[in-house]
Amino acid sequence: MTEVEQKPLQGKRIVVTRSRSQASELCRQIEALGGVPFEFPVIRTDFPSDLQPLDRAIAQLADYDWIILTSVTGVEMFFARIEQLIGTLPAGLRAKFAAVGSKTQAALERQGVTVAVTAEEYVAEGLLRSLGDQVAPGQQVLLPRSNIARKLLPDALRERGCLVTDVDAYRTLPVVGEASELIARLAAREIDAVTFTSSSTVNNFVAALSGSDVKTLLGDVVLAAIGPVTKETAQGHGLQIELMADTYTIQGLVETLVQHFTTKR
């Protein structure tokens, strides 16, 4: 293959820290661009250990004015539990749906839901701006989210006078896997980049490498974060994030990697 024909990530070995069930999209894009993904999942998702709060919210769906989903996983777990309990969304719901990001919107639309508001930015702050004055004091808002989601969104909605039910639709759990192969590859300078798609992936990645000199192992590795919250978490661990996606999506993360390695080449 000539240099002209080379794909933009040709031969680049890139660590994917997403859960194994979520990693396929990122791995496919890396491979399509000539890269070599190294899967090192550090998180997994499951239903909450206590399902009663989620089940109560589902039983009271008719009471809500807004149902806000902040991630694809949240959509999948929320609707999976709805299917287990009542089959489908009840007919005639008055609730409007809002989503953080186009991927979450698309996941809702696959469930047959019309999305009234989608955040222009892929963070909670973006959704607040997109909602504007469409949410009113006294309205009931359901937030089915991760057990470790930030409190900014529900707190801000309560400040607007909304009655917020912030319920765990799923929990994000650490994966304790064998890190010896990754450590060996890092030590041998066989890894070009590590991708972080959430604060959880950062925290658990660092924990997985505990006992090793993480800063030395990552000294020549490009660290890429999907957005500012993830970047801030990494910096809190003393990691230097070289790349951050302009658009806080998997596609945006890949585009940032492509731009970096193309320029570097």
From TrEMBL:
It holds the Pfam family HEM4. It comes from the Bacteria. Residues 25-255 form the Tetrapyrrole biosynthesis uroporphyrinogen III synthase domain. It catalyses: hydroxymethylbilane = uroporphyrinogen III + H2O. It is an enzyme of class 4 (lyase). The keyword Membrane does not apply. Pathway: Porphyrin-containing compound metabolism; protoporphyrin-IX biosynthesis; coproporphyrinogen-III from 5-aminolevulinate: step 3/4. Its EC number is 4.2.1.75. The keyword Zinc-finger does not apply. Keywords: Lyase, Porphyrin biosynthesis. Catalyzes cyclization of the linear tetrapyrrole, hydroxymethylbilane, to the macrocyclic uroporphyrinogen III. Belongs to the uroporphyrinogen-III synthase family. This is Uroporphyrinogen-III synthase. It comes from Tumebacillus lipolyticus. The lineage of its organism: Bacteria, Bacillati, Bacillota, Bacilli, Bacillales.
